[in-house]
């Protein structure tokens, strides 16, 4: 999943100016080897700043970093918290991921009813 839209140079400038969505967009590319030089530690640091500003894309991406150990220590419990922040904003990929975590009992207690709740949203 890449949600980078528009002119990449413009997005880079917005990122440098502190725009949280632009930070999430650039960080995704840095972490996922999606058209930019891979720098998972730098990408995780950048997207954490985005997530802390309440950006749902940033929260989802930081959760992905935490879940998979991309630039940060793997931490499924913390990943679940960040996916929940984004899911609370009705961000589809986070709803799906959080449902998967509940279905598998990864980072949260296994709970199929809770998983189904997120899948339906």
Notable characteristics:
mainly alpha
Characterize the structure shown.
With 121 residues, this protein is mainly alpha-helical. Helix content is 68%, strand content 0%. It starts with 7 loop residues before the first helix and ends with a helix. The model has no long low-confidence stretch (mean pLDDT 93).
Secondary-structure-based class equals mainly alpha
| Oligomeric form | single chain
- The low-confidence runs, each spanning 5 or more residues with pLDDT under 50, are none
Q: Please report the distance between the alpha carbons of the first and last residues.
A: 19 Å
Mean pLDDT: 93
What's the short story on this structure?
This protein has seven helices and no strands.
Secondary structure elements and their pairing?
Elements: H1 8-16, H2 20-32, H3 40-52, H4 56-68, H5 76-87, H6 92-104, H7 112-120
């Amino acid at each position: 999943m890449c949600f980078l839209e528009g002119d990449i140079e413009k997005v880079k400038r917005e990122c440098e100016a502190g725009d949280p969505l632009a930070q999430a967009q650039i960080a995704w590319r840095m972490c996922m080897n999606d058209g930019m030089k891979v720098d998972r530690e730098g990408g995780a640091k950048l997207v954490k700043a985005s997530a802390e500003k309440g950006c749902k894309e940033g929260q989802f991406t930081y959760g992905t970093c935490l879940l998979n150990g991309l630039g940060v220590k793997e931490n499924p419990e913390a990943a679940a918290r960040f996916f929940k922040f984004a899911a609370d904003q009705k961000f589809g990929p986070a709803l799906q991921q959080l449902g998967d975590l509940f279905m598998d009992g990864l980072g949260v207690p296994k709970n199929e009813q809770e998983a189904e709740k997120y899948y339906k949203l």
